[in-house]
């Protein structure tokens, strides 16, 4: 029983180290920290943070969690090789809308 409990703890802690989570919300702050309680306001800020994380460990998995709401994108989102092995997800099945109407080509 103790071995099983110990293994469960190792697996739970191990999962925390496999992926770095970043949070973004339309209600976030420009001064946000990218956490659930203090999310970034923009995708650009989250993608900048991805590059910082990847510069230290290029194989690190990063998950960008988008909180529910409308994201009015003013710029084209550009992903490069530094953004490999990332996931961009709607957090906890919240509804996310990416509005591209403000992008001028």
Keywords:
single chain; 105 residues; alpha/beta; three-stranded parallel β-sheet; two-stranded parallel ribbon; 30% helix; 29% strand; globular
Outline:
With 105 residues, the protein is an alpha/beta fold. Helix content is 30%, strand content 29%.
Explain how this protein is built.
It is a single chain. The protein is an alpha/beta fold and 105 residues long. It has one domain (2-99). 30% of the residues lie in helices and 29% in strands. The chain is built from 2 helices and 5 strands; from the N terminus they run H-E-H-E-E-E-E. It has helices at residues 2-18, 43-56, and strands at residues 19-29, 61-66, 69-72, 86-90, 96-99. The strands form 2 sheets. Strands 1-2-4 form a 3-stranded parallel β-sheet. It has a two-stranded parallel sheet with strand order 3-5. The longest helix is centred in the first third of the chain and has 17 residues, at 2-18. The chain is globular, with a radius of gyration of 16 Å. The protein starts with a helix and ends in a 6-residue tail after the last strand. Mean pLDDT is 85; it is low at 11-16.
Q: Estimate nothing, just give the exact number of structural domains.
A: 1
Structural class: alpha/beta
Average of per-residue pLDDT values:
85
Please state the overall shape, judged from the principal axes of the Cα atoms. globular
Query: How would a crystallographer describe the biggest sheet?
Result: 3 strands, parallel
Number of helices: 2
């Amino acid at each position: 029983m103790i071995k099983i409990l110990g293994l469960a703890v190792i697996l739970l802690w191990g999962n925390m180290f496999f992926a770095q989570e970043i949070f973004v919300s339309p209600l976030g702050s420009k001064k946000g920290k990218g956490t659930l309680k203090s999310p970034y306001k923009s995708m650009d800020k989250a993608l900048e943070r991805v590059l910082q994380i990847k510069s230290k460990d290029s194989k690190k998995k990063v998950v960008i969690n988008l909180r529910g709401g409308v994201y009015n994108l003013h710029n084209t989102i550009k992903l490069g090789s530094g953004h490999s092995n990332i996931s961009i997800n709607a957090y906890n099945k919240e509804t996310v809308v990416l509005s591209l109407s403000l992008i001028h080509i």
